[in-house]
Amino acid sequence: MAHHRGVSFLIILQKKTVRCCLTICRCIAVLFVLFLLLVQNSEAQEARSVQKYFSGTNQEVTVYTIKGETSGPTVLIFAGIHGDERACPVVAAKYSNIRLKKGNIVVVPRLNAVAIQKKKRNGLGGDMNRLFDQPETSKNPDVKVVNLAKELIKKADYVVNMHQGHGFYSPTWINSKRNPSRWGQSNVVDAPYFDLPNGDKLELEKFANKVVQRSNENITDRRFHFQVNNTNTGSEDSRHKVQRKSLTYYAVTKEHKHAIAIEVTKNCTFAQATTYLVIALNAVINETGIVADKLP
Ligand SMILES: [Zn+2]
Prior knowledge:
By secondary structure, the protein is of the alpha/beta class.
């Protein structure tokens, strides 16, 4: 009987040990899952960061940085350098919370907050897209914002400046709305290509051509097809010498980046303008090899 009681005791002890082990295992499993969730969350937090500059002033600039799961090129998107091009900040904001599998996107939806607030082309210091030749120490009140843009350009591979312009760009004269002096529905580059110090070339026009092709595949109405608009900014006979003070010209010539301006026409509805801007931006992003979970 004593022997039998001993065996029972042993069995109970074993059962208790097994239960205890199971509990410990469960605890470890729960802790592990919690750990995984924490890591995932912190990765998600790292994937998107928001930075504000000149906070509390009317020149506040918010910069959204989205990092992909794997490395790739960085596309920097500026909108709102001119305050009377309403569709640009609205569309740029759509890209501020996307998720990327590959590559990075930096978005500045409202570069010229004062101009946007006033719904006017110019902010505090005149046309901000004519200030990129100014020294960093300039007294112009917008130059601190320009200096921030220059810092962001340094870290990018591709730079996009979004605009809305009157009429439709055409390399030949069609009519007063559609001719070489108009800007709408064009991808603007400052040169066909740019010679880099290491002997390579920045193939600006080739890149713009591919972006235009991709864009137009998604636009059924041919009147709204994009065209490449090469302003030959640096050349002696350029009709756009004033663009030497622009953001894209700075990005190409000083920082050697693939820079492009996207111009959507003002001669359409707001909804159409946003649609064309999204089509053009997505074309740029896809052409650079960035992979998004889902684009706007
Ligand atoms: Zn503009």
